Amino acid sequence: MSCGARLAPFDIQELRDLTMYDELALDKLGDRKTALFLIMSDTDSTFNFLISMVYTQLFNLLCDKADDVYGGKLPIHVRCLIDECANIGQIPNLEKLVATIRSREISACLVLQTRSQLKAIYKDNADTIVGNMDSQIFLGGSEPTTLKDLAEALGKETIDSYNNSDTRGNSPSYGTNYQKLGHELMSRDELAVLDGGKCILQLRGVRPFMSDKYDLTQHPNYKYTSDYDPKNALDIEKFLNRKEKIHPDDTFVMVDADSLPPA
């Protein structure tokens, strides 16, 4: 019953048509510079498992090709920007993949709203996944678990504490107490109200530091985005429904289907 329930979506004809043929050529992403966009609905999660399937096949195919064809490293680095990672379902063995794909010129960037989302999906393996990441960036948020883990990762700083005492009466006395104390570099309440233009970056082997977020409007290619000009937006329906134009000087190869060998 479990297998039947998992395969039930493939009874839909549109889904069968989508998965009947391999048009992505995932094993060739490391051969040449390629941009592949996996777009899913942000309100309906019915078919989000397809995205997880694509990533599973992608990692397996590229790792095998790197080992069998290129001696362990792909000629072109493949970077996976997995936005809304919590909404695509669980990627099998991700805790092992993130530890091994880097040596094959493959990297995965997981984008999450909160760290608790990762723990909800990958359970005990969530800490292993985070531990295998070379860099972490905090863009802001107020989720308690995320703030607690980040505050602990930032560590403490040394502060000087001065206490003055003044006792008045028949026998007045004065005293000054000086001591050094440990104080959180940034407390949870400070992280919760982090300036929207700031971020905290943690790199392996480097102490965490605060930095300004990059202003996308200053990028040289910003003029090609739809934010700069709505005319730059890609019309998916128009792109998928485009028709090939035939020109008088085009050449064609005629093949008799009856003469082909049986499949």
Written overview of the protein:
The structure is a single chain. The strands form 3 sheets. The protein has a 3-stranded antiparallel β-sheet with strand order 3-6-7, with no helix packed on it. Strands 1-2 form a two-stranded parallel ribbon. The protein has a two-stranded antiparallel ribbon with strand order 4-5. It is of the alpha+beta class and 263 residues long. It contains 9 helices and 7 strands, in the order αααβαβααβαββαββα. The chain has a domain at 1-133. It has helices at 2-7, 13-19, 49-68, 94-100, 115-122, 126-131, 144-154, 188-192, 236-240, and strands spanning 78-82, 106-110, 135-138, 156-167, 173-184, 198-203, 209-212.
Total number of strands: 7
In terms of DSSP E residues, the strand content is 15-25%
Tally of DSSP helical segments = 9
Content-based structural category:
alpha+beta
Largest pleated sheet: 3 strands, antiparallel
Shape label? elongated
User: What are the secondary-structure elements, in order, as H or E?
Assistant: HHHEHEHHEHEEHEEH
Rg over alpha carbons: 28 Å
Organism: Faecalibacterium langellae
Protein name: Conjugal transfer protein TraG
